[in-house]
Specification:
Largest sheet: 5 strands, mixed
Protein name: F-box/kelch-repeat protein At1g26930-like
Strand content: 25-35%
CATH topology of one domain: Neuraminidase
InterPro entries: F-box/Kelch-repeat (IPR052439), F-box_dom (IPR001810), Kelch-typ_b-propeller (IPR015915), Kelch_1 (IPR006652)
Pfam families: F-box, Kelch_1
Keywords: Kelch repeat, Repeat
CATH architecture of one domain: 6 Propeller
Strand order of the largest sheet: 1-4-3-2-28
GO cellular component, one term: nucleus
Helix content: 10-25%
Length: 438
């Protein structure tokens, strides 16, 4: 039953074979060997999913994203589970947490059904805070190939999961959107009648809610997250004015704070964190006489000094992009990703992967994109950092071939060697994509 599952999933199975309170002998198999289900586990496996988002750790294939708060075991006493303050009977709290940190976060929904203490540890987000402190992070890819519909993919277990549908608003549904993951939240930025709006998906509640608005709402901005914060810079306001302003989002209290202004106004730009600093790439800016111009420079924001520094030619070059503003305006913002503080970019026109040489400040071609990484001038293709690897999500350009592929490249292995992580029938156009690390 554990084929394709991480070896520590055996720990989860053991949690469901909970002994009585008088028993003190606990053994957690780390060998990854399979064993027979006991009666409690059999009942769990046969239990039907009753609510959207409830996920069984024993089911494979495509599932709904799960969360502790959506479990139907709200009484915390089903199937012989304990409501005591101890996390695992017969084991001290530190050792219990150490065990839980080694479990996949995909299993936390089921673990939360064992006892009230475990459920509180998970649904409050405390377990994810401890994971961040310990550096025990999993990187899941969240993406949307259908309007108002999102999916998650766990590269470790190669499991697909569906998120609940976003709130149904026709204006928001068809508007351009940006997305960003920070902490255990997925933020989706878009437009409703008369104003910009942010919808927030919480991993803890497996639900959507309206997020707090920025001080200066915008679209077409650069963004990136770094631990429990995120930075957004540039973009356009509701009147179409290109901005040089920036804001920081704090995940813990869900607040926005204004940052110093950039040196240049820009929209349709991209952002990353690298070496603890925030970088903005390319985009379209404003030249003399308020005429629009293509920007090849970038800017660096130092979180400690709170100052911006302009960097010439930081934006990655693109093959056959043509000259002039009209050609650049039809292209997607730069497709960039940072792995282990190394910067990579996808050249969609030349189907190439480039790496930024920090010492010489030049972009160097290191390999090619996967064959199925089709796009429309860069639109519809996802190029993201995911832990120690780069993830590319896309499908063929040919009409009628409705599928997408997730390919990965571990950058420490050298030149790009792409490995197929997953493939499924789908619209072969990725509207939005982000990676949640928690």
């Amino acid at each position: 039953m554990f084929e394709g599952r991480p070896r520590d999933s055996c720990l989860v199975s053991t949690l469901f074979a909970m002994p009585s309170h008088n028993e003190t002998q606990w053994s957690f198999s780390l060998s990854g060997k399979r064993r027979f289900l006991n009666s409690d586990e059999t009942d769990l496996r046969n239990r039907k999913k009753k609510t959207h988002g409830e996920l069984s750790i024993l089911d494979g294939g495509e599932d709904d994203e799960c969360s502790a708060s959506n479990n139907n075991n709200s009484n915390g006493g089903e199937n012989g589970s304990s409501d005591s303050d101890s996390l695992i009977p017969g084991m001290n709290k530190d050792d219990s947490i150490s065990i839980l940190l080694r479990c996949s976060r995909a299993d936390y929904c089921s673990i939360a059904s064992v006892s009230r203490s475990l459920r509180n540890l998970i649904r409050t987000g405390e377990i994810y805070r401890l994971r961040r402190v310990q550096g025990t992070l999993e990187h899941w890819v969240y993406f949307s190939c259908h309007l108002n519909e999102w999916e998650a993919f766990d590269p470790r277990s190669k499991r697909w999961m569906r998120l609940p549908s976003m709130p149904q608003n026709e204006c928001f549904r068809y508007a351009d959107k940006e997305s960003l993951a920070v902490g255990t939240d997925l933020l989706v930025f878009g437009w409703e009648v008369g104003s910009y709006v942010i919808y927030r998906y919480s991993l803890l509640t497996n639900s959507w809610s309206t997020g707090k608005s920025m001080n200066m709402p915008r679209c077409l901005f650069a963004s990136a997250s770094y631990g429990e914060i995120a930075v957004l810079a540039g973009g356009c306001d509701s009147n179409g004015r290109i901005l040089d302003t920036a804001e920081m989002y704090n995940y813990e209290d869900q607040t926005w704070s204004v940052l110093p202004e950039m040196n240049k106004r820009r929209k349709m730009c991209s952002g990353v964190f690298m070496d603890g600093k925030f970088y903005v790439f390319g985009g379209i800016g404003v030249g003399e006489g308020n005429e629009l111009k293509v920007l090849t420079c970038g800017e660096e924001f130092d979180l400690k000094t709170r100052k911006w520094r302009e960097i010439p030619d930081l934006s990655p070059p693109r093959s056959n992009q043509g000259n002039g503003l009209s050609a650049a305006a039809g292209m997607a913002p730069p497709l960039v990703a940072v792995v282990n503080d190394q910067l990579y970019a996808a050249d969609h026109a030349g189907m190439a992967v480039r790496k930024y040489d920090k010492e010489n400040r030049v972009w160097v071609k290191v390999g090619s994109l996967p064959k199925q990484a089709g796009s429309m001038n860069g639109w519809g293709l996802a190029f993201r950092a995911c832990g120690d690897q780069v993830i590319v999500i896309g499908g063929p350009k040919a009409p009628g071939e409705g599928f997408i592929e997730l390919n990965s490249w571990v950058t420490s292995d050298g030149t790009p060697q792409w490995h197929l992580l997953g493939k499924k029938q789908s619209v072969n156009f990725v509207y939005n994509c982000t990676v949640m690390s928690c």
